[in-house]
Amino acid sequence: MGATELKRELPVLVYEAERGQEPLSMLRKKWIAEFIGSYFLVFAGTGAVIVNTLTSSLTHIGVAITFGLVVMALIYAFGHVSGAHFNPAVTLAFLFLRQIDARTALSFVVTQCLGALAASLTLLSMFGHVGSLGATLPSGSWQQSAVMEFILTFALMLVILASAVHAKASKSFAGIAIGGTVALEAMFAGPVSGASMNPARSLGPAIVSGSLSHLWLYIVCTTAGAVLAAYVYNQLHE
Q1: pLDDT digits over 57-67, tens only?
Q2: Which of 2, 11, 29, 125 has CA 20 to 30 A from 233's CA?
């Protein structure tokens, strides 16, 4: 950046700092990280569901491990850029804890959903309408899946806060802890509710495949579970 550009930029930086907001240039980097991360989470995770539907080569366990590994890899790739949310429920939980401001939270949620939609459109163009594009659907009653998604996301958010946020946490292992939790929960809960734990992960496949009947469940229950986990964490560590 030259001297002229710096002079133009400084008033903006000072103004936004006074308002407690990040400069737009820094926020753009976070948007890019959240978009790419959300894209590859859905591309790899639901892509594994599609490939398994076509070939039966991965099995349910393979799909669960794929979700866990991609989350782990993305945390280490983008955690230092955006915090590696890739999940509107996680972002709203951090907003509840006042770890981020409302503007950043809203922009993250929109970016995450766009990344998920782009991934599902990519998979549709590659494989066609196979396996509902990995959409999360209840295998039993919607009430059963609602409770399951609430509990799963509650547990995941507690692991995120305890491993990546707490001052005494070994943050270098956060990606392993969070990715392992995603894989574990997907293994035992996937056959019940789809183990979404993430509104964006459910939104992309649901909209592109047209499987919208239970989408609300995967938005409301996951968000409620994450926010309650943030509340409990705050009570435990205040």
Answers
A1: 999 999 999 99
A2: 29
